[in-house]
Design a protein that fits this description.
It is built from 13 helices and 9 strands. By secondary structure, it is of the alpha/beta class. Bound molecules: thiamine diphosphate. The site of thiamine diphosphate has 21 residues, from helix 2 and helix 6.
Amino acid sequence: MSTAQTVLDLDQLCVNTMRTLAIDAIQQANSGHPGTPMGMSPTVYCLWQRLLRFDPEDPIWMNRDRFVLSSGHASTLLYTMLHLAKVKAVDPEYEILGRPSVTLDDLKSFRQFGSRCAGHPEYRWTSGVETTTGPLGQGVATSVGMAIAEKWLAARYNRPEFDLFGYRIYAVCGDGCMMEGISSEAASLAGHLKLDNLCWIYDNNHITIEGKTDLAFTEDVAGRFLAYGWNVLRVGDANDLDRIENALKTAAATPGRPSIVIVDSHIGYGSPHRQDTSAAHGKKKSSSQRGHTAGRRTPSFLCPAEFTSTSKPALDGEAAKRASSGRSDSASTATNFRSSPPNSIRFKSGGCRPVGRRTFPCFRPMRREFPGAMRPRKF
Ligand SMILES: Cc1ncc(C[n+]2csc(CCOP(=O)(O)OP(=O)(O)O)c2C)c(N)n1
């Protein structure tokens, strides 16, 4: 078998495993939203595998790309990705624990009390979740704040030859997010501020909770975003990894404007009776349908050996390689920065903190005393 063929097969295997694990988790919980994971697994996989600079071994590296799942109801899409990418867990003190963030057992306890796989993604509860999402529109709005934060950090601390910050923010959203006023306000601001570090990926499946979107939502989304000053890109087939990759790369290479990639997808893709219907949005599949979707009657929570091997990096190691090269670049940048700081910054003797107002921001973690609550630490 040629190398290209092997890569293709690994891509397909990973996408299908994301889909079947999502279905199984929802089936086991007897509740959840399978439609978007079925339709958008290829897009999310493509982003993580081919573009994202995110090292699963170090999910808190400060210059990592941020991934936001604004369609929080489709949380299994994120949990399966975190599981297959073998993202490591961190504790409330921001120490890497060595254990995976999302195990197969966590997926098996999806939507149960205390599970790492809560119904909607929760920040600081499941490592790799960058912000809590669920209320439609909230994730995309937060992503604009994140993009502003990155621009601020870069403007304040980057110097010629010392690029400490340069990460991108990706947010996956659906029709529900687009309908919310908050996403319009945030998108308008992002266009005004020319946030070219921001990319929204719009799951354009024409279906929402009540039925077809044209019951209530017929606006020209592309036209709206053009008017906001965004770079608008379109991918006509959510299963075409190369086109998705091209669009995301074009977005990353477009200066001076945020980008939106409109991906035409099929909700519940592969489900024999529910694809392209609102029934796929939030209903579990019958076990016979689950078997059909997978092309065979799979045992529950089947995870091929390619992804369970502990010695082999998940996702072909590409995401990790990209991030760890970025990490070592930024580590050496930081070292050089300290040893020979640019003229505009002076350091206290022996320390790495600049004097005067240009101190590095220090983001202390919040302590989670018990599930469901967060308390600020006393310093
Ligand atoms: C502000 C807000 N209103 C209502 C809901 C309830 N809700 C959850 S998912 C959903 C429909 C989302 O539709 P879409 O984004 O098209 O998702 P898809 O059907 O493609 O999965 C609704 C109304 C919510 N989560 N947030």
